[in-house]
Design brief:
single chain, 402 residues, alpha+beta, Butyryl-Coa Dehydrogenase, subunit A, domain 1, Butyryl-CoA Dehydrogenase, subunit A, domain 2, 8-stranded mixed β-sheet, 8 strands, globular
Length: 402
Amino acid sequence: MTTLEMRQENTVPNTAEDILAAVRALTPELRERSVEIEQNRRLPADVVQLLRGAGVFRMGFPPEFGGPGLTSAEQTAVLEALAYADTSVGWCGMIGMDSGLYSAFLRPETVREMFPTPDMITGGLINPNGRAERVPGGYRLSGHWNLGSGITHADWISAGAHTFTDGEPDTTQAGNPNWRVMLVRPGDVKTIDTWHATGLAGSGSMDYEIDGVFVPEEHTFSFGVPLSRTGPLAAPDSLMRKMPGVPLGAARAALDHVREIARTKVNRMTGERWADDYRVQFALGECEMDFLTIRHAVYGSIEDKWRELESGTPYDELGPDLRVSTVVLALNAFRGALSIVRRLYDLLATTSIYKPSPMDRWLRDLTTMCQHVMAQDVIVQSAGAHLLGGRPQFPFAVGVTS
């Protein structure tokens, strides 16, 4: 590590409390730049540096690698605050901080080589869209991936792939295709500017291609095999637990926005204050009720699972109810947040449709967010199948990796 890197690292917040405070302090500036971020279709370089400086990307690294080792609930709270300021920024923070979570599945010496500071960023996609042919010392990787969130500012890019030996597909003990995640440098990746999206426009989630790039074995991993640590952040579902922070932050922002308007708005036709209008009162009360129910369910499920894993229970020995709870409640947070914002959007009527109003952006962001696999029916099916001992269509959602 260089002297400059050491000096920079020492100034970055490194506790849950300090990182959360630093993120909240960024809210006014990020709000002011939301239009710019959306128009640019990616995070500006200086915004990325603001997030680095606030400690966002180091949250998943444990102390032995220079990070704070935040719990999943603490990570979720930071992402909620970040998305409260700007949803695309929150989404990129959620993806970019996976560096520290990936480190659980890499050897300690590899973590120190690849991530000389805990503020390095990952982007890309873990889905096995690529083909990785085994060669001496590693793999020869090719493929095309879409929805590569954060790759425009990433230090490492993830690319999931099925592995092959001598042209034949490798399989797991269960007979499934062998899936590994490859980490490659941005210079080995060709980005394709496809990200012209309705929502989360500032996330830079464009397509990318890799053509025959050599990836050393040590720069690849399987979520079923932790190599540098044990515990709650070495479980295969650690990436998914903190995801609900983003929709929760967007919904909270919309609720606060509409509450502020409703306190002073007057119906021009009747002269009645919105604060005294039963319809407005009921709509806001119902949305607040739904938000609090969703939020407390998310945090409660995360904390329940964390306590069990922290007590020493291996992930494979968790009961199906505990495995399923975090993932279905995460899905409920995505869909519930969209429902809340849609109702608030309707409550404001034509006020919502004009671009100076952030309501339109929150609605589009959440609509796009709910196209993610974590908000799709396959999650519900996989949860139900796991509870019944059946076959999940998306096994990774319930932590099945082989």
